[in-house]
Structure to design on (380 residues):
């Protein structure tokens, strides 16, 4: 509850005395001042919520006092005491937000009404303040809860996706180990080779997974350098050629000759293209074995308004519209235990960080095209 104190300012000792008694009777703790300067001094010290001041005083008049009080504390309720013929002053004081006026000679009832009104305003303002503060707190708490819940959900999803990916790989390793052991037991070269291939494939997978995860977790600090845009594409082709050959898939490079150098993080772009080519090879591999010759093309070309465009094209299984919508999502994969669903989410992150764009065109059974455009200078 508000402190029930009041500052009474009047230059006439008689009026101060009479009003002090009336105000004390109404339950106020009364401070008195006989001029504006004294009033200001007491106000600074006691901070009463209500000030009752004569409008006409020598030196500093009531209006000047009102103006200064409002400057110090705009919420102070200032009631002006006016005499007959102080109309001009009274009007002036409205401009400075006087709460009310009581005219001399002061009628106790009129004074009480004015004081009650002032008190009501103070209480209302306090309640409003409390509401606003509570509301702000409430909004803040709720927002915090939501952020936290979202974060936990994201962590949960990530952990679930990861454990799935790791389970697939350990499953493969276990299978390989089993075949390898059988090979040792039976001294069977064929089993030994098979088991070893299974293990090697899964070691590659876990290497790739940890590299991708590292890239995903890493804060954005791209190592941007001027590069020949063909270089990462060539690297990916060299890296994937043996595997493509093994699977009977033709891997073709189609690089424009008139390319300008670009600024990007070559390792990351290489990582990204590697994911696209790996997927393209998977798409060809999973397709109908009787289908026409399988082919994956990596194209590097100029693009209007951009530094360079990469295209990875395949004539593999393609994707329906529903799959296309989801491929950049975390851990989305249609490959069951063979996939992790991490490749494209990393690729998208890398391209986003380069201020580039990645697009797809695909049709179920008719192959896929991935397009990446990078600016001349990716400022990261
Ligand atoms: N070239 C492509 N052809 C057909 N489907 C593709 C191709 N590239 C990506 N996809 C689809 O996108 C999914 C997500 O790819 P990715 O994030 O690399 O995860 P993963 O390869 O581990 O499944 C794949 O499971 C596949 O369904
Ligand atoms: Mg992939």
């Amino acid at each position: 509850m508000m402190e029930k104190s009041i500052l009474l300012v009047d230059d006439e000792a008689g009026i101060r005395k009479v009003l002090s008694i009336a105000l004390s009777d109404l339950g106020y703790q009364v401070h008195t001042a006989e001029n504006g300067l004294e009033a200001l001094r007491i106000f600074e010290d006691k901070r009463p919520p209500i000030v009752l001041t004569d409008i006409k005083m020598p030196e500093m008049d009531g209006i000047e006092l009102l103006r200064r009080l409002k400057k110090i504390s705009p919420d102070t309720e200032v009631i002006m005491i006016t005499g007959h013929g102080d109309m001009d002053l009274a009007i002036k004081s409205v401009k400075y937000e006087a709460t009310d006026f009581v005219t001399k000679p002061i009628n106790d009832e009129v004074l009480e009404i004015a004081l009650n009104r002032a008190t009501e305003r103070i209480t209302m303002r306090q309640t409003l303040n409390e509401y606003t503060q509570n509301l702000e707190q409430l909004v803040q708490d709720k927002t915090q809860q939501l952020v936290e819940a979202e974060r936990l959900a994201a962590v949960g999803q990530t952990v679930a996706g990861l454990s799935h990916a790791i389970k697939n790989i350990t499953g493969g390793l276990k299978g390989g180990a089993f075949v390898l052991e059988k090979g040792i037991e039976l001294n069977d070269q064929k089993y030994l080779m098979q088991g070893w291939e299974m293990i090697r494939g899964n070691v590659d997978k876990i290497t790739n997974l940890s590299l991708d995860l590292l890239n995903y977790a890493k804060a954005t600090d791209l190592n941007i350098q001027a590069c020949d845009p063909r270089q990462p594409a060539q690297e990916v082709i060299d890296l994937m050629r043996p595997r493509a050959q093994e699977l009977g898939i033709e891997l073709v490079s189609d690089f424009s000759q008139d390319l300008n150098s670009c600024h990007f993080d070559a390792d990351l772009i290489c990582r990204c293209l590697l994911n696209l080519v790996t997927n393209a090879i998977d798409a060809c591999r999973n397709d109908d074995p009787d289908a026409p010759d399988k082919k994956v093309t990596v194209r590097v070309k100029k693009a209007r308004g951009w530094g360079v465009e990469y295209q990875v094209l395949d004539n593999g299984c393609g994707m329906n519209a529903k799959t296309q919508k989801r491929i950049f999502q975390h851990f989305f994969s249609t490959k069951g235990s063979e996939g992790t669903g991490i490749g494209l989410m990393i690729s998208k992150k890398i391209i986003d960080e380069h201020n580039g764009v990645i697009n797809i065109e695909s049709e179920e059974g008719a192959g896929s095209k991935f397009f990446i455009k990078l600016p001349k200078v990716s400022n990261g």
